[in-house]
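not sure who needs this but someone in the group chat was asking about IS4 family transposase from Vibrio campbellii so here u go. i didnt clean anything up, its just raw.
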Amino acid sequence: MCNTLNGDYLPYQLSFNGALAHIMRLIVGLPYSSPGAIPRQLENFYSMSESLILEPRRERSFPRVVKKKPSRYPRKNNADHLK
């Protein structure tokens, strides 16, 4: 489906749920269509793929960080032995 689109689109740039719905609709309808109508249905299927293009992802507002693992024991607040 990505090969039929104008531009360099990769599979992860298309909506998975939308593509799945289009494919299911095509599979359900193919047994009831005449053999001469199948190329027209495939052409319609590929023309609808332009509606599946996702917009680019935005940058994170807060970057990912690795949080410090909490200690299993309480921390001693008074350090008399260091004085």
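also The radius of gyration is 27 Å. if thats useful
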